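Notebook entry, structure prediction.
Reason for the run: the old model in the group folder had no record of what sequence produced it. Starting over properly, with the input documented here first.
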Amino acid sequence: MRVVLASASPRRHELLGMIGIAHEVDPADIDESVRAGESDTDYALRLATEKGLSVAARHPDALVIAADTIVVVDGRIFGKPVDWADACRMLRVLSGRTHVVHTAVAVVRDAGRRVESEVESTRVTFRELDDSEVAAYVATGEPMDKAGAYGIQGYGATIVERVEGDYFTVMGLALRQLVSLLERVGVPYRFHALEAGPA
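New structure, fully documented this time:
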């Protein structure tokens, strides 16, 4: 079965490869504005599902995997920073505090006729950061394409004090969650192969 990852994220691409799921990459392009009254988890879930359905329309014969990751602190949603100053602002807010990372995953099969999705949440605590550390980290370029302006698998590992929950959720694709969703759409994961079950 063809598998398409509806994301340009190198981390998600790497994680699928790590567990032996051969796939193509075709990023979705959707409006990511938050709707009035929408909760943070509903927002992440909607975006993952819309991304999956959008790409499934282009690949009706494929199994599509989509995801969306957001960082939430004080009820505020932090997506990817828009520029250097925005990344610094996010990191100053997160410094020395605990925030929540929500990663929603959607699996779409049969051109959108079968969709399963779910949100996984993990708590992350940063150590205290001074302004020079924030500026030095942003200067690496790592924060610019990541929700909350940090990547836990790179330089950002040095500013994370504690993770309570699924590490891969923070990377952007909860693998245990993904395997469960694959099972629910009838495509069991069996280590290095995807097998289509009964339709």
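Summary: The two ends are 13 Å apart (CA to CA).
The old model has been moved to the deprecated folder.
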